[in-house]
Amino acid sequence: MPTFKQTIRKLAEYAIAKKGARQSPSQSNFDVHEFPSVQLPGGLWGMFFEIADEPYVRMPVLADRFKEHRKVYPALKKSAWEERDGHIYMEVSLHADLPVEFIKSLIDEAYSIVWNKLDKGARLKIELAGQPYDETKLLDRMIEIHDLKQFRKEIRKVSRPAILLRTTKSTEAKIPIAASKIGGQPDLPANVEWPVYTNGKPLAFLAQINLSEITKLGTPIKGLPIDGLLSIFSVWGWLEEGEFDPKTPTEVGAEQIGWTVILHTPKKVKLERRKTPKTVNFFKSAAVLPTPVLSLPNHRVEPPLAALGWTEELYDRFDVMQSDFRSLQMGYWLKNSDIFASHHQLGGYALFQQDFPQEVLEKGLAMLVQIGTDNYSKMVWGDGGELTFYADAKALAKGRFERVWGECQGG
């Protein structure tokens, strides 16, 4: 007799194998085979198979079909969820000795309900997501779909290389000295003190990036050193237990003097792993998989995009196009096709969940790195947002990290 976990795994494998199926973004950090919440992206109510309270699984069903199924299998029960978009939800007990093949047929029906509610655009994105992944070709396809072919040259010109810093679950002990990581304990030279704010409180350590790894993939920022270790410390990482909004200094911080320190340690300098001071919070250590990606501006105020002088209608079409591109990109790399999927990124364009910060234009700043909400490092910024750090554009082009300015934006 199979256990509940064995049956769940078998059914989850069946559901996730469906065309376009994915684990819900809100549950993306849970193993789909253990805690399935399987859906199709693009629909208002896209979930078609998920675990409810053990031993039940939940899925949508048409009301008439539910009545028919109950005549044969009385163990089926209607969910407490309200009717949504023309269908109800049922809960199926995996302890009721129902044939697995029958439950699979219920998954088929549930999938069909959701698929039939998707519009043409959502189905097209699912089709594209199932094709071999090539970002240059994908961008060209998006340009064609959104009738922007005559602006292909301009769009390619404003696109920028970036490095997506994908994280994986790890531990401090498993991550080598000088390796890229988000959170954890920093690797510093013995003669370098832990950076502190003007009041003496240590800055929070957020990340370190091995630049030799980045250079092999293509440097995303002009002037970025080709090797060594980039380490990021900031007051923007100050969090109190149970809080998600950074506790930045209370004094006026327009210039943010001393708020963020970015250290570049040359390659041949010996490093040691430093313990986090007791007076500042710390984050779990997550290993990093650097991945080169194409980055598109997602706000029309971005100087390269604003300089094109497009009409409002054209900006709107581009915005939908870049959103679709990002959705497919994040769906492939992060298994999360939400266009606002929080992530870590070096170079390229920042993801804006709110307004474009005017300080970037006024101060002549360039985007350096974005540190997102991340389950592996246990970082949460506001409502699933990001910390974004900018530096003086002219200094950055010469490999210097001056006038660093940060911002936190949430969903």
UniProtKB/TrEMBL annotation:
<dbReference type="InterPro" id="IPR038056">
    <property type="entry name" value="YjbR-like_sf"/>
</dbReference>
<dbReference type="InterPro" id="IPR015315">
    <property type="entry name" value="DUF1963"/>
</dbReference>
<dbReference type="Pfam" id="PF09234">
    <property type="entry name" value="DUF1963"/>
</dbReference>
<dbReference type="InterPro" id="IPR035948">
    <property type="entry name" value="YwqG-like_sf"/>
</dbReference>
<protein>
    <submittedName>
        <fullName>DUF1963 domain-containing protein</fullName>
    </submittedName>
</protein>
